[in-house]
Input
Amino acid sequence: MTNRFSRYCSISLFSACLWTTVPAQAESGITVLASIKPIQLIAEEMLGELADVNLLLPAGSSPHHYSLKPSAISQLHSADLVIWGGEDLEMFLRKPVSQLSQPALALLEPATDSDDEHDEHDEHDEHDEHDEHGHQHQGDPHFWMAPERALEAAAEIRDRLIQLQPDQADVLGVAYQRFESRLQEKDKLLKQQLKPLKDEGFFVFHDAFSGFVEHYQLKQLGYFTVDPGRKPGAKHLSEIRQALEQQKAVCVFVEPQFKAPVVENLIRGLNIDVGRLDPLASTSPTGATGYTDYLQSLADSFSGCLKKN
Output
């Protein structure tokens, strides 16, 4: 990502010039179906009018716990390209996408045996890892939280579409370069915005933000749960309460997708701010700057809760 971003100036100038020489829309449009909202944001911001990017899961629906409706099967089969996270993120799609005539694009590689063992350990050790910068989650499926991984996803989308429409290779290449330049510019701004907050500790409800936290060097002290469908253990909650009482954290973040009364109970009587982070971009508008605007919304949520009075 660093090497890619270091080429921003030259890429930006090249993209601006080349874009004026190509049509705003591909000669033959293509229908793309993204499984979840964050993937739709990345694809739509990169592709613009080159493709019609639709959404499979209703915005805000968790890919961890979802039952595919019969009407969605028709969507899968009618799309020119289906893009999903992969079976480690969306196990419910494993069989449906295997039945498509046009292979779907999975943006995540299946976990290795070592990753599986690591995740299993995470789920049974009461989640005792609360190091200064948060938990190092191998194979974190929430790839859209890290700008460098979102850029890699965009490249995979570009390459698959070039396979489907080789005559549009130049146009798709320019679209990717524009996305890369815009993402690099946003990344610089967010680093400036978040740098003053690097020493402010916080907890998140769901272990979904590691990519963002690590990229911007924020101080995540821990999380309530790996899987929002699983209640955190009593020992783990006791450890979080102790950390909060010792004023190691200034904020606890909840999510709009899940009711978290356990968080309210835990912070009762403490001078702790509560913020909100949306890992699924449920209310983020799609469009020309949908993904970069989503990154900005995450940064603003962190800033709003972590800034000292």
